[in-house]
Amino acid sequence: MQTDFYRIKRLPPYIIEEVNTLKAKARARGEDIIDFSMGNPDMPTPAHIIDKLVETARDPRSNRYSASRGIKGLRRAYVAFYKRRFGVDLDPDSEVIANLGSKEGFANLAQAITAPGDVVLVPNPAYPIHAFGFILAGAAIRHVPATTPEEYLSRLGNAVRHSVPSPLALVVNYPSNPTAQVVGLDFYKEIVAFAKKHEIWVLSDLAYSDIYFDANNPPPSILQVEGAKDIAIEFQSLSKTYAMPGWRMGFAAGNRHLISALGRIKSYLDYGAYTPIQVAAAAALNGPQDCADQIRATYKARRDVLVDSMTRAGWTIPSPPASMFAWAPVPESFREHGSMEFAKQLLIHAKVAVLPGIGFGEYGEGYVRVALVENEHRIRQAARNVRKFLGTRLNDPAPELEMAK
What we know:
By secondary structure, this protein is of the alpha/beta class. The chain is built from 13 helices and twelve strands. It has helices at 6-9, 15-28, 47-57, 72-86, 102-113, 128-136, 149-161, 185-198, 256-269, 275-286, 290-313, 339-350, 376-394; strands spanning 34-35, 96-99, 119-124, 140-145, 169-173, 201-205, 232-237, 250-254, 325-329, 352-353, 355-356, 367-371. The strands form three sheets. A seven-stranded mixed sheet has the order 2-8-7-6-5-3-4, with helices on both faces. Strands 9-12-11 form a three-stranded antiparallel sheet. Helix 4 runs parallel beside helix 10 (275-286) and helix 7 (149-161) runs parallel beside helix 8 (185-198).
């Protein structure tokens, strides 16, 4: 019986799972691991959102199958959010759809619009689903270097010229996971103009739009650009903004043809999220937003402690302007061994877990991603551990790495 399945063969080991395995082994030995690896928000979901979930769940009618595209009240809440946050008008019936998290939405859209052999332009480094959603759908991926937004823009033209067939779509993700970089509206204007010129769909991942640290410059939406809805769809998530990761609520907005295609695929695959979750999600979007402000302030405080304490420990980490991640260069003394080995050594000797940059693509090498998912006390403890570890390395004139098992 065949066990060497085609699509599974196309997938490399998921880097998060590899790190999780190492963490599990360490914890099984009784070690206390300070975990910055997975972007898994640790703050409690605001009470009024939970209260609405409980209230709705008590109604027996809410336990029936729900709506795959999202209940109407939730879609209207998404529309109100876009108008309030970005000044963008949307039709709740044709330009918005609920997803079981932005990751699920992205992967289902790939299935909806992709034929085997289609070419998709994906930034590198990038969050894995941006490439592997399309790989699972049978597409060919052209990785475009994106160590900065400017580099990505400058390389797109060359990527189109050297793609056969012409690209079907391109992906943008700002604030970026993993690099935490941000862009302004001018960037999106250039992307929209480029996509229209070459007749390419634009898929924007805006999951971190409300985790930003400059109050005067909140990240924009591509849909703010005139004509963007002609070619663009944008994915959002409630996971980070309202500390709701396990609720799996996200949505997509924009081009009605892409929204329709996504809805068609979803109609075959799911009946939508549990209705009380959708009602609670609407309460999050429509209710008081001071909870989102508090969550953002917590991430900012953690960022400041991380950057300051790690710098004092001898590891310089640039201050991220947005997202719940820091994109940290591997210390010089480890550079030749690569990000994966540094991450392993950090786990073994400093009891600190991070994700190696190579897991986000070849242009992520030389960096690790640090998630702001531990409290300030734990961040300072991690810095003390790192200081001891780096001090040992720096005092060893010919250090030998202890290879992780």
